[in-house]
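Quick one: co-fold with fe (iii) ion.
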Amino acid sequence: MRQYCQTRIDLHVHSTASDGVLSPSEVVCLALEQGLHAMALTDHDTVGGVAEALEAAAGTALEVIPGVEINSEGDWGDLHFLGYYVDCANGALQERLTVVRDARLGRAYAMVKRLGELGMPLEWERVRALASGESVGRPHVARALLERGYVQTLQEAFDRYIGNDGPAYVPRLRLSPPEVIHAILDAGGVPVLAHPAYSGAAIVARIPEFAALGLRGLEVYYPGHTPQDVEVLLNLCRQLGLLATGGSDFHGLGHGEGAFLGSVDVPARCLDDLRAACCARQVPVRPAAGRA
Ligand code: AMP
Ligand code: ZN
Ligand code: FE
Ligand code: FE
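Sure, here it is.
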């Protein structure tokens, strides 16, 4: 039987502000039902859901941590950075995220166009409606494909058409790792590399480089990470003085990557270290020794 930590936390959660299926307040209700003590809302390229989540959790036993997942790709690979405790009102961050989201719109439109060329016309307005929040992503395109009956499951949409190697795939805006890391740091946040082992060995190999650029942590505990991945990443945390985090990458049952809310065992110490890193932004983060 799975061992539950006394303090249950989930530091990687999506809502309808990006490509999750539950609104921020619905996610908060579910987190309370699941007995979570803390949850970070980390929507793709937006902090638009954070205020609603904070409000929904006010006066409850749940702590909501403001967060964001900033995606980027390019010669260095498909990178996902989590930014914890960012100041959601930070002007430079808001501007940067607006540029990224605008690019997402153009990219989703281009994918819809390619799907049309492949014999699967979709109504752009429908894709826009499915993306009720600020950030449009592939899951919204996948849902439109499913609705029109071009695929039988969301997974099939990725496997056949819009996965990274698919014929209708269009890359996201190219942001460099220093750009993302500094945008998070400048907004008072703690930059953490999301699911490094799941992203691939080439990205894990570049972790020392990212640490030198100001990265503060690694998402060690993740549904797609094997026990060996966890060990490798914890060793890297110790060597490089990075903190460890973890979460489910919940998008909604059967929607997108990740697992059910709160289903990943994340040691409570991860949150203590994250808080300490936030309070001591200019001070190097303590190594993760003995943290597993
Ligand atoms: P985007 O940021 O628009 O590229 O979309 C990324 C999101 O699409 C991820 O967070 C997942 O929710 C989903 N996703 C990406 N790749 C896959 C895949 N191969 N299978 C299922 N969902 C995926
Ligand atoms: Zn997603
Ligand atoms: Fe991700
Ligand atoms: Fe995610």
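If it helps, Residues 14, 19, 44, 137, 139, 251, 256 surround zinc ion (ligand 2) (CB under 6 Å).
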